[in-house]
């Protein structure tokens, strides 16, 4: 027959090994969950910082765009781009005063403003090609410039 003392030692050994295995797996599962929680928390913090950075960039871009619009409106008030009688577009003043301001931060301008500026440029190129500003081109430049100023006002209010 089996020695009863051996059976008691075996039961103690099995119980000790089982308790150790349970403690090991319990610790492993807890650590794994903690690691996942830390990763999730860290990823949320990274996403929040990225969103904050993007918002700061958008805010700065918006402020820079409004600064360009401010300068254009200031020049429009200080310099005569369109004379009253006869209604005439002052090409030299536009090219010296307004156009450089618009192209300082052209990439930030709204699409409709960019389109108007490009259209004004194409009319000016046509005038340079024929070496004269004809009545049709003058009217178109006056209308485009007025549209430019009105659209800047609209974007200012938005």
Please tag this protein with its features.
2 strands, 4 helices, mainly alpha, 158 residues, 84% helix, two-stranded antiparallel ribbon
Instruction: Please give the number of β-strands.
Output: 2
Low-confidence stretches: none
**What is the end-to-end distance?**
97 Å
- Helix and strand composition category: mainly alpha
Largest sheet, strands/sense/barrel:
2 strands, antiparallel
Kindly report the spatial arrangement of strands forming the biggest sheet.
1-2
Assess the beta-strand content as a share of residues: under 5%
Mean pLDDT: 87
Would you write up a description of this structure?
The chain crosses the membrane at residues 6-30. Keywords: Membrane, Transmembrane, Transmembrane helix. The chain is mainly alpha-helical and 158 residues long. Helices cover 84% and strands 3% of the residues. The chain has one domain. The protein contains 4 helices and 2 strands. Strands 1-2 form a two-stranded antiparallel sheet. A hairpin with a 4-residue loop joins β1 (82-83) and β2. The longest helix has 75 residues, at 4-78. It is rod-shaped and about 125 Å long. The N and C termini lie far apart (97 Å). The relative contact order is 0.08. The model has no long low-confidence stretch (mean pLDDT 87).
